[in-house]
Task: structure prediction
Amino acid sequence: MMDDLPALLKRVSRIAFFFLSMGCLGWAVWPELRNVFGGFMIGVVGGLAISWHLAWKLVQLGNAAISGRKPRSGLGFLSRACLGLLAGVISVRVLDFNLAATATGLIVSPMATLLLGLVARSRRSDDHPTDERGEKH
Amino acid sequence: MEIYGLLAAAIVFGLGALGAGIGNGLIFSKTVEGISRQPELRGALQTTAFIGVGLVEALPIISLVLAFIFMAS
Result:
């Protein structure tokens, strides 16, 4: 059961670091494709930063909801979109890497989050079957 | 051709961000409501919100990069 946000974040980070190491390996083995692997690695780092930022915001949201005070900062998509934009601009404009590879790297962390969440949900439904009335125990 | 690329980028990212904004608003409002009602379920609600936002925000991040590709073309 994965009801713990830090545990989920740790798993997502582990998957992102795995893809990052694959990118480093590709960077070292295929020097002619360095713009592709470099863009991919920057995208993975950007996606991971987005996930960490989102988790931090959610913890802040929980604290604010429990204490009853207004959260200091917003929870919108803008800051995370800016992180993705920053990764794209650094990768493509500054370091002259491949844009499609950067896009692929950016969606690694959200896809990992989604897959881990679906796996956890299916495990949870297997652990707690419903009775004949459809209610969970 | 350049103006069409800019227009396509604006439409792609604008609609993607609009959907993400609505989805995020719904997710966060229900999360705050749930945590306020039952603070002991905070961990489960935060994890579910994290997964939901990850699902919601995958599309606008893709659309952001697609907008870049349209602008570059």
